[in-house]
Amino acid sequence: MTEARGSAGLNGTTHARHTPGTPCWVSLMVHGMAATQEFYGRLFGWEFRPGPQQLGPYVRALLDGHEVAGIGQLPPDRHLPVAWTPYLASDDVDLTAATVRHSGGTVGVGPLDAAEAGRLAIASDPTGGVFGIWQAAAHLGTGITGVPGTPAWNELVTRDTESVVKFYQGVFGYGLEPVVSADFDYVTLYVDGRPVAGIHGVGHGLPRDRGPHWMTYFEAADVDEAVERVVELGGHLLKAAHDSPYGRVAMVADPEGAMFSLIHTVR
């Protein structure tokens, strides 16, 4: 997903600066910070430390000392969907935000500085799918991938790929590889010849109460056991564990309803 720089143990890959267009961070805005940290800490073994507070209380999740995700506090009067949001790397967030607007998207927050960490914006594509844009300074983004508890993949779930793929290609310059199939609408997004994210058209299978949205996949050592843990911790199973060409996968939600997928990647 990202540019590798060195290694972390035998199984993980550490990362430095991310190439523009690659998912470089995932963040979750919630109502109950303490309960959410408890849930993900017990599920993934994350520890937490404070992060920039520009948008309210915020913590960064760490795994073996490497930053892997962020969790922030929603204002009490904001009744927004609780959802994991991927941040896509940019060398110039102001230019990228302007390109989003010119391409039919919307910029809802920023661009603004997050202390010394970097500069960010939160935007949505023309169909309503929300994503972040991150220009790194001190904070480069996700520090490790490839081990349980780290982001493994990000995928836009939308009605059809045709309506939105040109937007992302125009803004981030992705290479495209569509699946040629009458009953499977999928486009893989590439940066420098590497697959970095996907767009999945699900037609009428799109949840009416959610609309188009980005889905984050987290690596799990054992998907079935992780699903059991989610439920024990107060979360919910949305799609039972099953085998896919990329590994065993399941869809779940945390106690506040934030959806995410668990995957044990085939390597």
From TrEMBL:
InterPro entries: Anthracycline_SecMetBiosynth, Glyas_Bleomycin-R_OHBP_Dase, Glyoxalase_6, VOC_core. Pfam families: Glyoxalase_6. It comes from the Bacteria. Residues 22-136, 150-265 form the VOC domain. This is VOC domain-containing protein. It comes from Streptomyces albiflavescens.
